[in-house]
């Protein structure tokens, strides 16, 4: 209710006849709801994203917080299919051997050295003799 709410932007009481509620517990003066990065006003005509109590426009939220491809550093769209190697995520077309450029497909054996993917032909069998001790896991 106006007069009782505290603005999440400036911390002041909201006594205006209108306020903007972004989530169930965060309310702003209409003039205070701006992108924390670029300052663009965020209102009912602009998509608003929250992170750690701060509001962001769609462009800045995506630029700052979206998961990005470990190879090309571009963000993913919701329709992209991805490949994962440990904590790294790749576009399908970016999931390639760093040495020979061959695209790696599901089921291919590869090695991850720092950020570089290497196909089996480029990294070869393990050097610790583990291949001779027993069957390899798939």
From TrEMBL:
Keywords: Developmental protein, LIM domain, Metal-binding, Zinc
SMART domains: LIM
Cellular component per GO, a single term: nucleus
Coiled-coil annotated residue ranges, if any: none
PROSITE patterns on file: LIM_DOMAIN_1, LIM_DOMAIN_2
Record InterPro entries: ISL1/2-like, ISL1/2-like_LIM1, Znf_LIM
Keyword field contains Transmembrane helix: no
GO biological process: axonogenesis; neuron fate specification; positive regulation of transcription by RNA polymerase II
SUPFAM superfamilies, alphabetized: Glucocorticoid receptor-like (DNA-binding domain) (SSF57716)
GO molecular function per UniProt: cis-regulatory region sequence-specific DNA binding; DNA-binding transcription factor activity, RNA polymerase II-specific; metal ion binding
Pfam families: LIM
Subcellular location field: Nucleus
Start and end residues of each LIM zinc-binding domain: 5-67, 68-129
Name the record gives this protein: ISL2 protein
Name of the gene this protein is made from: Isl2
